[in-house]
Amino acid sequence: MKFSNPKTRNHLSIKKAYHVLEIGGGNYPHPRANVVVDKYVDSNYHRSGNIKVYPHQKFVLAEGESLPFEDQSFDYIICCHVLEHVDDPIAFLKEQTRVASRGYIETPSIIGEYLMPKESHKWLIQEIDGKIIMYDKETIGFVAWQDFGNVFLEYLPKQSVGYKIMQRTHNNLTNMVYEWSSEIEVLVNPESSYYRDFFTKPWDVATCNKLLHQNSFKSEAKSSMGAIINIVKTFFSNKEKSLRDPVI
Q1: Which parts pass through the membrane (predicted)?
Q2: Fewest Cβ atoms nearer than 10 Å: which of 1, 57, 64, 109?
Q3: Given its phi and psi angles, is residue 158 left (phi above 0), alpha (psi -120 to 50 degrees) or beta?
Q4: In what order do the strands lie in the sheet with 131-136?
Q5: What pLDDT sits at residue 241?
């Protein structure tokens, strides 16, 4: 079940001794992962660049729905921006709870998918009442008339410090961030209008209050200061320079 909504993928509950697996690290693997799994090595259809790993990471070519590891082989599993691509989300998530006792899932939120739609994304996803709710785009008639991906993924991150702060203080605005333990509560294409309405009807103030984080001024100010410090540290970090092509 869910036990937290981390601020970012860099704020996870991973202890130093944990053996960590990442599913679909792509061109931007999590530096904390010890093992990285990816399904495609010859196609970048599902990612924005060629697969990379850090020198300390082992790369394994495998499918997320059929992981080549024994039960509970890992202490923690990371899955960032992969779930929205898979054909069988139930099988995919069951494998994660089989090989690890806890983990982190990040996907585009409903807002993120409307602003930055991708042809390779099969699902619209949102956390509601502690559960991951997924609808096949075709099932609910998803139509994105414009793709603002370059604005929010390329232009603003490079041009706006204010946007960088917002990314770190309101990550759940465009992303679904979900840290789990023991099991993952997920509903796929639920027929209930209670869930479906969040995906198909305009959001009012009550919906925003329910689905988006609410902070006091003091908490927001503290988070913003922390975000500024993180931005400065990131600016001077050279970790990405150590990335290399995986050994397959």
Answers
A1: none
A2: 1
A3: alpha
A4: 123-128, 131-136, 186-188
A5: 60
